[in-house]
Amino acid sequence: MSENFRKDYLDLNAFRGLGEDPAYTLPQLVDRPRAWPLSRWAEAPRDLGFNDFLNCQWKGLRLLKDPETQSAYHNLLWELRPRTIIELGIYSGASLVWFRDLTRLMGIDCKVIGFDKNLTRNRIPASEMDNITLIEGDCNDLSTLEPLLAHADQPVLLIDDAHWNTFNVMSWATTRLLKPGDYFIIEDMIQFWDRYSPKLLAEYLASFDGVLEMDMLYANTCPQLQRGVFRRSGVEQQGA
Hints:
single chain; alpha/beta; Rossmann fold; 9 strands; 24% helix; globular; disordered C terminus
């Protein structure tokens, strides 16, 4: 197995967050009334003016996972049945609550861990923190990831939503945390890196050959997960 994945990587995108309020607010139809008279039913606009990504919520918390992404995770959770879900970059914390609730509904005994260098954006009320652990740390300082090891029961689903130092984090995870069959998912960014840094992206991913493999069942499901669903090598995959 190649040791190339242990090298140091340049950060492909210093992604500094959305710059928006993480609190969820009900969508507003600014160019039309919400209540439409049925006497003018045929004249009603066909589009709802409702942005799935911006307006998705879970229990009143902004959930930055669009419906297609939610569906893909639903199927992956049922197949993998993770014991630990780790999300790097929590924003409002909605997806932590969503993952916790969804695994409970599926009867999966799973711990949910949120890791972020700025936990002040967390909007999870105390009443919803059951089985959710928050850890403060910085993906640019890999030593701050070490506390995650104490929480990791396999199978592990590790999601990069922080978009800082991603490939060095991936190298750390494949060396220190992930076992065969565990998952490392990069949300959102692959399509942008492929547009602006295609050669470096291909080089970086190739260095993980034999260590990670792309799961083609989930990597083509939706734009947020596009070509960013990776599985730790070593276990035969169902249907492979």
